[in-house]
Design brief:
GO terms for molecular function: manganese ion binding; metalloaminopeptidase activity. It is an enzyme of class 3 (hydrolase). The structure is a single chain. This protein is an alpha/beta fold. The protein is built from 16 helices and 18 strands. The strands form 3 sheets. Strands 7, 8, 9, 10, 11, 14, 15, 16 and 18 form a 9-stranded mixed beta sheet that branches. It has 2 domains: 176 residues, Leucine Aminopeptidase, subunit E, domain 1, CATH 3.40.220; 310 residues, Zn peptidases (Aminopeptidase), CATH 3.40.630.
Length: 510
Protein backbone atom coordinates (compact mmCIF):
# COMPACT_ATOMS: atom_id res chain seq x y z
CA UNK A 1 0.00 0.00 0.00
CA UNK A 2 2.84 2.35 0.89
CA UNK A 3 4.36 2.09 -2.56
CA UNK A 4 1.13 3.17 -4.23
CA UNK A 5 1.44 6.79 -3.05
CA UNK A 6 3.97 9.25 -4.35
CA UNK A 7 6.12 10.72 -1.57
CA UNK A 8 4.73 14.26 -1.53
CA UNK A 9 1.10 13.13 -1.68
CA UNK A 10 1.71 10.67 1.17
CA UNK A 11 3.14 13.32 3.46
CA UNK A 12 0.30 15.74 2.69
CA UNK A 13 -2.17 13.01 3.66
CA UNK A 14 -0.21 12.23 6.82
CA UNK A 15 -0.02 15.80 8.01
CA UNK A 16 -3.65 16.62 7.27
CA UNK A 17 -4.87 13.44 9.01
CA UNK A 18 -2.55 13.32 11.99
CA UNK A 19 -2.26 17.01 12.75
CA UNK A 20 -5.39 18.85 11.59
CA UNK A 21 -4.44 22.00 13.49
CA UNK A 22 -1.14 22.37 11.61
CA UNK A 23 -0.89 23.94 8.16
CA UNK A 24 1.14 22.13 5.51
CA UNK A 25 3.62 25.01 5.27
CA UNK A 26 4.17 28.51 6.57
CA UNK A 27 2.54 31.61 5.13
CA UNK A 28 5.45 31.92 2.70
CA UNK A 29 5.19 28.48 1.14
CA UNK A 30 7.99 29.29 -1.30
CA UNK A 31 10.48 29.47 1.57
CA UNK A 32 11.74 25.94 1.32
CA UNK A 33 14.48 24.29 3.29
CA UNK A 34 16.66 21.38 2.25
CA UNK A 35 18.53 18.88 4.44
CA UNK A 36 21.65 17.35 2.85
CA UNK A 37 24.40 15.16 4.24
CA UNK A 38 28.19 15.23 4.27
CA UNK A 39 30.33 12.36 5.53
CA UNK A 40 33.19 13.17 7.86
CA UNK A 41 36.29 10.95 7.79
CA UNK A 42 38.62 10.46 10.74
CA UNK A 43 40.99 13.07 9.28
CA UNK A 44 38.00 15.47 9.13
CA UNK A 45 37.84 15.30 5.33
CA UNK A 46 34.38 16.21 4.05
CA UNK A 47 32.74 14.05 1.40
CA UNK A 48 29.31 15.09 0.16
CA UNK A 49 26.59 12.46 -0.04
CA UNK A 50 25.56 11.49 -3.60
CA UNK A 51 22.44 13.69 -3.38
CA UNK A 52 24.40 16.60 -1.91
CA UNK A 53 27.02 16.22 -4.65
CA UNK A 54 24.32 16.58 -7.34
CA UNK A 55 23.02 19.68 -5.59
CA UNK A 56 26.58 21.04 -5.37
CA UNK A 57 26.95 20.66 -9.12
CA UNK A 58 23.64 22.46 -9.63
CA UNK A 59 24.96 25.48 -7.69
CA UNK A 60 28.35 25.43 -9.46
CA UNK A 61 30.30 24.05 -6.52
CA UNK A 62 29.24 26.81 -4.09
CA UNK A 63 27.96 24.37 -1.49
CA UNK A 64 31.25 22.53 -0.95
CA UNK A 65 33.12 25.82 -1.16
CA UNK A 66 31.01 27.30 1.65
CA UNK A 67 31.44 24.18 3.80
CA UNK A 68 35.21 24.30 3.45
CA UNK A 69 35.36 28.01 4.16
CA UNK A 70 32.96 28.46 7.02
CA UNK A 71 32.36 25.37 9.09
CA UNK A 72 34.01 22.77 11.24
CA UNK A 73 31.40 20.17 10.41
CA UNK A 74 31.01 17.28 12.85
CA UNK A 75 28.79 14.18 12.86
CA UNK A 76 25.31 15.01 14.11
CA UNK A 77 25.90 18.78 13.78
CA UNK A 78 24.42 21.06 11.12
CA UNK A 79 25.06 24.41 9.44
CA UNK A 80 22.59 26.44 7.40
CA UNK A 81 23.67 28.15 4.18
CA UNK A 82 21.38 30.79 2.70
CA UNK A 83 20.84 31.91 -0.87
CA UNK A 84 22.76 29.18 -2.70
CA UNK A 85 19.71 28.17 -4.73
CA UNK A 86 16.51 30.01 -5.66
CA UNK A 87 14.33 26.91 -5.22
CA UNK A 88 15.71 26.11 -1.76
CA UNK A 89 16.85 29.34 -0.11
CA UNK A 90 17.93 27.54 3.08
CA UNK A 91 20.19 24.49 2.94
CA UNK A 92 21.12 22.64 6.12
CA UNK A 93 24.24 20.50 5.81
CA UNK A 94 24.48 17.71 8.38
CA UNK A 95 27.59 15.76 9.28
CA UNK A 96 27.47 11.96 9.24
CA UNK A 97 29.98 9.43 10.48
CA UNK A 98 31.52 7.50 7.61
CA UNK A 99 31.44 3.71 7.38
CA UNK A 100 30.15 2.93 10.84
CA UNK A 101 29.14 -0.76 10.97
CA UNK A 102 26.57 -2.44 13.18
CA UNK A 103 27.88 -2.78 16.72
CA UNK A 104 27.18 -6.15 18.34
CA UNK A 105 27.86 -4.73 21.79
CA UNK A 106 25.60 -1.69 21.39
CA UNK A 107 22.81 -3.79 19.76
CA UNK A 108 22.05 -0.91 17.43
CA UNK A 109 22.44 -0.60 13.67
CA UNK A 110 24.68 2.44 13.78
CA UNK A 111 24.19 3.24 10.09
CA UNK A 112 20.42 3.52 10.58
CA UNK A 113 20.81 5.59 13.75
CA UNK A 114 23.37 7.83 12.04
CA UNK A 115 20.75 8.73 9.43
CA UNK A 116 17.94 9.29 11.97
CA UNK A 117 20.14 11.67 13.93
CA UNK A 118 21.26 13.48 10.77
CA UNK A 119 17.68 14.04 9.59
CA UNK A 120 16.77 15.24 13.08
CA UNK A 121 19.65 17.73 13.25
CA UNK A 122 18.82 19.19 9.85
CA UNK A 123 15.11 19.56 10.58
CA UNK A 124 15.68 21.14 13.98
CA UNK A 125 18.14 23.66 12.57
CA UNK A 126 15.79 24.76 9.79
CA UNK A 127 12.75 24.77 12.07
CA UNK A 128 14.66 26.93 14.54
CA UNK A 129 15.42 29.35 11.71
CA UNK A 130 11.72 29.65 10.86
CA UNK A 131 11.75 27.38 7.80
CA UNK A 132 8.69 25.12 7.92
CA UNK A 133 8.57 23.54 4.46
CA UNK A 134 11.43 21.06 4.64
CA UNK A 135 12.73 18.53 2.13
CA UNK A 136 15.08 15.79 3.29
CA UNK A 137 17.51 13.80 1.16
CA UNK A 138 17.45 10.00 1.29
CA UNK A 139 20.90 9.59 2.95
CA UNK A 140 21.03 6.28 1.01
CA UNK A 141 18.61 5.03 3.68
CA UNK A 142 15.15 6.51 3.03
CA UNK A 143 13.33 4.51 5.72
CA UNK A 144 15.55 5.72 8.56
CA UNK A 145 15.57 9.24 7.12
CA UNK A 146 11.77 9.28 7.23
CA UNK A 147 11.67 7.90 10.77
CA UNK A 148 14.00 10.59 12.09
CA UNK A 149 12.19 13.31 10.12
CA UNK A 150 8.62 12.46 11.16
CA UNK A 151 9.52 11.81 14.81
CA UNK A 152 11.60 14.99 15.10
CA UNK A 153 9.01 17.25 13.47
CA UNK A 154 6.22 16.38 15.94
CA UNK A 155 5.62 17.40 19.52
CA UNK A 156 2.72 17.19 21.94
CA UNK A 157 0.91 20.54 22.12
CA UNK A 158 -2.71 19.48 21.78
CA UNK A 159 -4.09 21.75 24.49
CA UNK A 160 -2.14 24.98 23.98
CA UNK A 161 -4.24 28.00 23.01
CA UNK A 162 -1.52 29.13 20.62
CA UNK A 163 0.23 26.22 18.98
CA UNK A 164 3.67 26.34 17.45
CA UNK A 165 3.67 25.78 13.71
CA UNK A 166 5.27 22.41 13.15
CA UNK A 167 7.37 21.78 10.05
CA UNK A 168 6.19 19.64 7.17
CA UNK A 169 8.71 17.12 5.88
CA UNK A 170 8.97 15.21 2.63
CA UNK A 171 11.52 13.35 0.58
CA UNK A 172 13.71 15.52 -1.66
CA UNK A 173 13.47 14.91 -5.42
CA UNK A 174 13.62 11.15 -5.75
CA UNK A 175 12.45 9.61 -8.99
CA UNK A 176 13.18 6.18 -7.54
CA UNK A 177 10.00 4.27 -6.64
CA UNK A 178 12.01 2.14 -4.21
CA UNK A 179 13.17 5.25 -2.36
CA UNK A 180 9.58 6.50 -2.13
CA UNK A 181 8.31 3.15 -0.86
CA UNK A 182 11.01 2.95 1.81
CA UNK A 183 10.43 6.57 2.86
CA UNK A 184 6.69 5.97 3.16
CA UNK A 185 7.30 2.83 5.22
CA UNK A 186 9.53 4.72 7.66
CA UNK A 187 7.09 7.63 7.80
CA UNK A 188 4.19 5.32 8.67
CA UNK A 189 6.17 3.62 11.44
CA UNK A 190 7.05 7.01 12.89
CA UNK A 191 3.46 8.19 12.50
CA UNK A 192 2.33 5.15 14.51
CA UNK A 193 4.82 6.01 17.25
CA UNK A 194 3.57 9.61 17.27
CA UNK A 195 0.05 8.29 17.87
CA UNK A 196 1.34 6.36 20.89
CA UNK A 197 3.18 9.50 22.08
CA UNK A 198 0.01 11.56 21.81
CA UNK A 199 -2.11 9.03 23.72
CA UNK A 200 0.46 8.60 26.48
CA UNK A 201 0.77 12.34 27.05
CA UNK A 202 -2.99 13.04 27.02
CA UNK A 203 -4.26 14.09 30.48
CA UNK A 204 -6.12 11.32 32.27
CA UNK A 205 -9.39 13.24 32.54
CA UNK A 206 -9.41 13.44 28.74
CA UNK A 207 -8.50 9.79 28.18
CA UNK A 208 -10.65 7.61 30.44
CA UNK A 209 -11.22 3.94 29.57
CA UNK A 210 -14.38 4.93 27.69
CA UNK A 211 -12.66 7.70 25.71
CA UNK A 212 -9.74 5.42 24.87
CA UNK A 213 -12.15 2.79 23.55
CA UNK A 214 -13.97 5.38 21.43
CA UNK A 215 -10.64 6.62 20.04
CA UNK A 216 -9.61 3.07 19.12
CA UNK A 217 -12.82 2.66 17.11
CA UNK A 218 -12.36 5.99 15.33
CA UNK A 219 -8.72 5.24 14.50
CA UNK A 220 -8.98 1.64 13.34
CA UNK A 221 -12.48 1.01 11.96
CA UNK A 222 -11.86 3.05 8.76
CA UNK A 223 -8.86 0.76 8.09
CA UNK A 224 -11.02 -2.36 8.12
CA UNK A 225 -9.90 -3.38 11.62
CA UNK A 226 -12.57 -4.85 13.88
CA UNK A 227 -12.82 -3.25 17.33
CA UNK A 228 -15.02 -4.84 19.98
CA UNK A 229 -15.55 -2.99 23.27
CA UNK A 230 -16.67 -5.16 26.19
CA UNK A 231 -18.19 -3.80 29.39
CA UNK A 232 -18.14 -4.76 33.07
CA UNK A 233 -20.95 -7.31 32.71
CA UNK A 234 -19.04 -9.14 29.98
CA UNK A 235 -15.88 -9.18 32.14
CA UNK A 236 -17.89 -10.54 35.06
CA UNK A 237 -19.35 -13.28 32.86
CA UNK A 238 -15.78 -14.10 31.82
CA UNK A 239 -14.80 -14.32 35.52
CA UNK A 240 -12.15 -11.62 35.08
CA UNK A 241 -12.19 -10.71 38.76
CA UNK A 242 -8.53 -9.67 38.88
CA UNK A 243 -9.22 -7.11 36.16
CA UNK A 244 -12.44 -5.92 37.78
CA UNK A 245 -10.90 -5.60 41.24
CA UNK A 246 -8.56 -2.85 40.03
CA UNK A 247 -11.48 -0.84 38.63
CA UNK A 248 -13.45 -0.87 41.92
CA UNK A 249 -12.01 2.39 43.25
CA UNK A 250 -13.03 4.56 40.29
CA UNK A 251 -16.38 5.82 39.06
CA UNK A 252 -15.10 5.35 35.49
CA UNK A 253 -16.36 2.00 34.18
CA UNK A 254 -13.75 -0.50 32.98
CA UNK A 255 -13.56 -1.47 29.33
CA UNK A 256 -11.94 -4.44 27.62
CA UNK A 257 -10.94 -4.10 23.96
CA UNK A 258 -10.64 -7.01 21.55
CA UNK A 259 -9.15 -5.79 18.27
CA UNK A 260 -8.82 -8.00 15.21
CA UNK A 261 -6.60 -7.34 12.19
CA UNK A 262 -6.87 -10.34 9.88
CA UNK A 263 -4.84 -10.29 6.70
CA UNK A 264 -3.94 -14.00 6.40
CA UNK A 265 -5.35 -17.37 7.46
CA UNK A 266 -2.68 -18.44 9.93
CA UNK A 267 -3.22 -18.72 13.68
CA UNK A 268 -3.04 -15.23 15.18
CA UNK A 269 -0.35 -13.46 17.11
CA UNK A 270 -1.70 -11.85 20.28
CA UNK A 271 -0.61 -8.49 21.67
CA UNK A 272 -1.74 -7.51 25.18
CA UNK A 273 -1.34 -3.89 26.33
CA UNK A 274 -1.68 -2.61 29.89
CA UNK A 275 -4.35 0.11 29.86
CA UNK A 276 -4.33 1.81 33.27
CA UNK A 277 -5.41 5.26 32.12
CA UNK A 278 -4.42 6.72 35.49
CA UNK A 279 -2.62 5.00 38.34
CA UNK A 280 -2.71 6.68 41.75
CA UNK A 281 -1.67 3.38 43.34
CA UNK A 282 -5.08 2.70 44.87
CA UNK A 283 -5.10 2.34 48.66
CA UNK A 284 -1.30 1.81 48.48
CA UNK A 285 -1.18 5.36 47.15
CA UNK A 286 1.87 6.67 45.33
CA UNK A 287 3.89 9.70 46.50
CA UNK A 288 2.49 12.92 45.04
CA UNK A 289 5.77 13.91 43.35
CA UNK A 290 5.54 13.08 39.63
CA UNK A 291 2.24 11.26 40.08
CA UNK A 292 0.97 13.23 37.08
CA UNK A 293 3.20 11.05 34.91
CA UNK A 294 0.91 8.16 35.69
CA UNK A 295 -1.36 9.45 32.94
CA UNK A 296 1.07 7.43 30.80
CA UNK A 297 0.55 4.17 32.68
CA UNK A 298 -1.44 3.12 29.63
CA UNK A 299 1.60 3.36 27.32
CA UNK A 300 1.47 -0.40 26.74
CA UNK A 301 -2.09 -0.02 25.47
CA UNK A 302 -1.07 2.97 23.35
CA UNK A 303 1.81 1.03 21.80
CA UNK A 304 -0.26 -2.02 20.78
CA UNK A 305 -3.01 0.23 19.41
CA UNK A 306 -0.44 2.19 17.39
CA UNK A 307 1.19 -1.06 16.25
CA UNK A 308 -1.98 -2.46 14.72
CA UNK A 309 -2.57 0.95 13.10
CA UNK A 310 0.89 0.86 11.52
CA UNK A 311 0.49 -2.74 10.32
CA UNK A 312 -2.91 -1.97 8.80
CA UNK A 313 -1.63 1.14 7.02
CA UNK A 314 1.31 -0.86 5.67
CA UNK A 315 -1.07 -3.69 4.65
CA UNK A 316 1.15 -6.28 6.35
CA UNK A 317 -0.10 -9.84 5.68
CA UNK A 318 -0.59 -11.06 9.23
CA UNK A 319 -3.33 -12.16 11.62
CA UNK A 320 -3.32 -10.20 14.86
CA UNK A 321 -5.45 -10.08 18.00
CA UNK A 322 -4.93 -7.11 20.32
CA UNK A 323 -6.33 -7.26 23.87
CA UNK A 324 -6.45 -4.09 25.99
CA UNK A 325 -7.87 -4.08 29.54
CA UNK A 326 -8.71 -0.48 30.48
CA UNK A 327 -9.18 0.79 34.05
CA UNK A 328 -8.31 3.58 36.49
CA UNK A 329 -6.58 2.62 39.76
CA UNK A 330 -7.80 5.06 42.43
CA UNK A 331 -8.32 5.04 46.20
CA UNK A 332 -11.89 5.27 47.49
CA UNK A 333 -14.32 3.58 49.83
CA UNK A 334 -14.99 0.93 47.21
CA UNK A 335 -11.35 0.32 46.21
CA UNK A 336 -9.74 -3.07 46.70
CA UNK A 337 -7.46 -3.23 49.73
CA UNK A 338 -4.10 -4.72 50.72
CA UNK A 339 -4.75 -8.23 51.97
CA UNK A 340 -7.83 -8.80 49.78
CA UNK A 341 -8.14 -12.16 48.08
CA UNK A 342 -9.25 -12.20 44.44
CA UNK A 343 -9.57 -14.81 41.70
CA UNK A 344 -8.28 -14.60 38.15
CA UNK A 345 -10.03 -16.00 35.08
CA UNK A 346 -8.09 -19.29 35.30
CA UNK A 347 -9.27 -19.82 38.89
CA UNK A 348 -5.98 -19.03 40.64
CA UNK A 349 -6.33 -17.17 43.93
CA UNK A 350 -4.27 -14.00 44.44
CA UNK A 351 -3.55 -12.16 47.68
CA UNK A 352 -3.22 -8.44 46.99
CA UNK A 353 -0.28 -7.38 49.12
CA UNK A 354 0.04 -4.05 47.31
CA UNK A 355 -2.72 -2.35 45.31
CA UNK A 356 -0.07 -0.41 43.36
CA UNK A 357 0.96 -3.69 41.72
CA UNK A 358 -2.25 -3.53 39.71
CA UNK A 359 -0.98 -3.77 36.14
CA UNK A 360 -0.12 -7.44 36.51
CA UNK A 361 -3.68 -8.12 37.75
CA UNK A 362 -5.41 -6.74 34.68
CA UNK A 363 -2.83 -8.38 32.40
CA UNK A 364 -3.37 -11.72 34.14
CA UNK A 365 -6.99 -11.97 33.00
CA UNK A 366 -6.13 -10.75 29.49
CA UNK A 367 -3.38 -13.37 29.20
CA UNK A 368 -5.84 -16.05 30.30
CA UNK A 369 -8.33 -14.83 27.68
CA UNK A 370 -5.69 -15.04 24.93
CA UNK A 371 -5.96 -18.86 25.09
CA UNK A 372 -9.36 -18.56 23.34
CA UNK A 373 -7.57 -17.74 20.05
CA UNK A 374 -5.00 -20.60 20.06
CA UNK A 375 -2.24 -18.09 19.25
CA UNK A 376 1.16 -18.73 17.67
CA UNK A 377 2.60 -16.55 20.42
CA UNK A 378 1.52 -13.97 22.99
CA UNK A 379 3.32 -10.71 23.76
CA UNK A 380 2.31 -8.40 26.60
CA UNK A 381 3.69 -4.90 27.08
CA UNK A 382 3.34 -2.72 30.16
CA UNK A 383 4.78 0.10 32.21
CA UNK A 384 4.97 -2.48 34.96
CA UNK A 385 7.72 -1.88 37.51
CA UNK A 386 9.89 0.89 38.86
CA UNK A 387 12.50 -1.86 39.29
CA UNK A 388 12.94 -1.98 35.51
CA UNK A 389 13.57 1.75 35.44
CA UNK A 390 16.30 1.22 38.05
CA UNK A 391 17.79 -1.72 36.13
CA UNK A 392 17.93 -0.31 32.60
CA UNK A 393 17.07 3.39 32.83
CA UNK A 394 15.67 4.86 29.60
CA UNK A 395 18.09 3.01 27.31
CA UNK A 396 16.25 -0.25 26.59
CA UNK A 397 13.05 -2.19 27.16
CA UNK A 398 13.39 -5.12 29.55
CA UNK A 399 12.16 -8.41 28.06
CA UNK A 400 11.30 -11.73 29.68
CA UNK A 401 10.57 -14.74 27.48
CA UNK A 402 10.18 -18.50 27.44
CA UNK A 403 11.30 -18.59 23.78
CA UNK A 404 14.88 -18.03 22.66
CA UNK A 405 13.79 -17.85 19.03
CA UNK A 406 11.21 -15.14 19.62
CA UNK A 407 13.49 -13.11 21.84
CA UNK A 408 16.32 -13.23 19.29
CA UNK A 409 13.96 -11.97 16.58
CA UNK A 410 12.76 -9.16 18.83
CA UNK A 411 16.35 -8.20 19.62
CA UNK A 412 17.20 -8.03 15.90
CA UNK A 413 14.13 -5.88 15.33
CA UNK A 414 15.22 -3.48 18.08
CA UNK A 415 18.71 -3.35 16.59
CA UNK A 416 17.26 -2.17 13.27
CA UNK A 417 14.89 0.40 14.75
CA UNK A 418 17.43 1.73 17.27
CA UNK A 419 14.84 1.13 20.00
CA UNK A 420 16.67 -1.62 21.86
CA UNK A 421 15.58 -4.47 24.09
CA UNK A 422 17.52 -6.40 26.75
CA UNK A 423 16.73 -9.86 28.06
CA UNK A 424 16.06 -10.35 31.77
CA UNK A 425 15.90 -13.67 33.68
CA UNK A 426 12.74 -15.71 34.03
CA UNK A 427 13.99 -18.29 36.55
CA UNK A 428 12.03 -20.57 38.89
CA UNK A 429 13.65 -18.83 41.86
CA UNK A 430 11.51 -15.77 41.12
CA UNK A 431 8.35 -17.87 40.87
CA UNK A 432 9.00 -19.19 44.38
CA UNK A 433 8.94 -15.62 45.70
CA UNK A 434 5.33 -15.13 44.59
CA UNK A 435 3.95 -18.70 44.66
CA UNK A 436 5.02 -20.29 47.96
CA UNK A 437 2.08 -19.36 50.21
CA UNK A 438 0.14 -21.49 52.69
CA UNK A 439 -3.38 -20.17 52.06
CA UNK A 440 -3.56 -18.99 48.42
CA UNK A 441 -1.88 -19.57 45.07
CA UNK A 442 -0.05 -16.28 44.47
CA UNK A 443 0.98 -12.96 45.98
CA UNK A 444 0.85 -10.00 43.64
CA UNK A 445 4.32 -8.91 44.83
CA UNK A 446 7.40 -10.97 45.61
CA UNK A 447 8.85 -11.78 48.99
CA UNK A 448 12.10 -10.15 50.03
CA UNK A 449 13.96 -7.21 48.52
CA UNK A 450 15.02 -6.61 44.95
CA UNK A 451 14.19 -8.25 41.64
CA UNK A 452 10.81 -6.54 41.37
CA UNK A 453 10.75 -6.68 37.58
CA UNK A 454 11.61 -10.39 37.66
CA UNK A 455 8.97 -11.36 40.22
CA UNK A 456 6.37 -9.37 38.25
CA UNK A 457 7.25 -11.36 35.12
CA UNK A 458 7.11 -14.59 37.13
CA UNK A 459 3.60 -13.61 38.28
CA UNK A 460 2.43 -13.04 34.70
CA UNK A 461 3.91 -16.34 33.57
CA UNK A 462 1.33 -18.12 35.78
CA UNK A 463 -1.43 -16.88 33.43
CA UNK A 464 0.15 -17.52 30.02
CA UNK A 465 -1.69 -20.27 28.11
CA UNK A 466 0.04 -23.63 28.52
CA UNK A 467 2.75 -24.45 25.95
CA UNK A 468 2.47 -20.99 24.40
CA UNK A 469 5.52 -18.95 23.37
CA UNK A 470 5.45 -15.69 25.29
CA UNK A 471 7.25 -12.37 25.62
CA UNK A 472 6.75 -9.83 28.40
CA UNK A 473 8.01 -6.28 27.74
CA UNK A 474 8.45 -3.98 30.74
CA UNK A 475 8.63 -0.43 29.36
CA UNK A 476 8.58 1.55 32.61
CA UNK A 477 12.06 2.93 31.94
CA UNK A 478 11.52 3.98 28.30
CA UNK A 479 8.08 5.56 28.85
CA UNK A 480 9.39 9.17 29.11
CA UNK A 481 9.04 12.10 29.68
CA UNK A 482 12.82 12.69 29.54
CA UNK A 483 14.29 11.06 26.44
CA UNK A 484 17.90 10.55 25.43
CA UNK A 485 17.04 10.33 21.72
CA UNK A 486 17.16 13.75 20.00
CA UNK A 487 14.37 12.83 17.59
CA UNK A 488 11.93 12.34 20.48
CA UNK A 489 12.51 15.44 22.61
CA UNK A 490 10.65 15.89 25.88
CA UNK A 491 7.37 14.11 26.48
CA UNK A 492 6.13 10.55 26.49
CA UNK A 493 8.08 8.46 24.02
CA UNK A 494 5.68 5.95 22.45
CA UNK A 495 8.47 3.38 22.64
CA UNK A 496 8.84 0.66 21.41
CA UNK A 497 6.09 0.95 18.77
CA UNK A 498 8.44 0.82 15.78
CA UNK A 499 10.19 -2.25 17.19
CA UNK A 500 6.85 -4.08 17.54
CA UNK A 501 5.91 -3.24 13.95
CA UNK A 502 9.32 -4.41 12.70
CA UNK A 503 9.07 -7.59 14.80
CA UNK A 504 5.71 -8.57 13.31
CA UNK A 505 6.64 -7.47 9.78
CA UNK A 506 9.69 -9.72 9.79
CA UNK A 507 7.56 -12.73 10.63
CA UNK A 508 4.87 -11.82 8.09
CA UNK A 509 7.46 -11.42 5.34
CA UNK A 510 8.76 -14.96 5.98
Amino acid sequence: MAGSLNCQRFMRLYYSAARPSTRFCSNDCSRKGLVLGAYIDKDKTVQLSPVAEKFNQKVQGKLLEQIQLSSNLKPGKSFIYWGLDKDYPAVSIVGLENEKPEDDIELRNAANENVRLAATAGIKSLDGAGVKNIFVENFSNPESAAEGSVLASWKFQEYKAKKDELPSVQLFESGDDSDCEKWNKGALKAEAQNIARKLADTPANLLTPTIFADYARELLTPLGVDVKVYDEKWARDQKMFAFLSVAQGSIEPPKFLEITYKNNDQAPYVLVGKGVTFDAGGISIKPSANMDQMRADMTGAACVLATVYGLAKLNVPTNLKVLIPLVENLPSGSAFKPGDLIYARNGKSICVDNTDAEGRLILADALCYSAEFKPQWVLDIATLTGAMMVALGDVATGVFSNSNQLYNLLEKSGTETGDRVWRMPLWKSYTKKIAENPAYDLNNIGKGRGGGGCTAAAFLKEFVPEKTSWLHLDIAGVMGPENAEPYLGKGMSGRPTRTLIEFIQRQANK
